Amino acid sequence: MSGDQLSTVLMPLLLALIMFSLGLGLLPADFRRIAAQPRAFLLGFACHFVLLPLVCFGLLSVFPLPGAIAVGFMLIAACPTGTTSNLLTYIARGDVALALSFTAAASLMTIITLPVIVTLAMGHFLGAHQQIDFPVGFMMIQIFAMLGLPVSLGMLAHRAWPRSVQRFEPLATRLSTLAFAIIVIGALVKNWALFEQNFSVVAPLALALNVLMLILGFAVARLGRLERRQAVTIAIETAMQNATLAIVIGSTVLRDDALVVPAAIYGVLMYVGGLVFAFTVRRSAPPVVPERPDELIAPR
Length: 300
Prior knowledge:
Elements: H1 3-24, H2 28-36, H3 38-62, H4 67-78, H5 84-91, H6 96-126, H7 136-146, H8 148-160, H9 162-190, H10 192-223, H11 228-239, H12 243-253, H13 260-283
């Protein structure tokens, strides 16, 4: 399979598989739970969709990078939380139900927020003449096809065939993990020269962004008077991004290989900060029974 076929056909299909498996593990109750704890969700929304892009933009202002690489950072900051956050929340003894609810809602809200943030970033870092050459609405449709539709189909399958889905979920999780690995490895192989050229400057900034958001997410949640388990969850949800989506968007929608470099590097390094944070806060946390341990999804 050629590099173009990998970008335009295989990657979107693999991402759809990942998001479908997420939908298999979701119930309408996960969305209704948001109404039951609106303060936690609103603080999480502020951290993820407002604070994260602002912090990323601030870092890029202090440590300037080439235009396309800078846009790639804003792309990863604009993506929804990755479902790896559910697993890390479980490890850290956070609020798993809140993590599931936020992951589901963030994936749908990104359909609107991501095109806006990326369009503004391209205008700022690349210049007005190099902005996206198609309407923002078209990007929203593409993102819905890659995110909203597969998640919705997964939820419908869960509702229609709950027993079959329960048996299929372990296999879906393994297939999704494999899909994630294929996408990241494919991006590395296809753009190896770009990675070699930019790794030394991108990796420190990616790690700094991840660590900063873990700290700030936790601090904002505590200042907002959330209890400790919810604060841990907000921190993880703020820092763990859907790097797979960023890679696919950069390759297939924006068609610029340089945009996937920050996403692929962040997609690997975020596990370093995330796991250190999870195991650190776990030491001081009392044991808890997870709300829905059977619904944890593998890394995306």
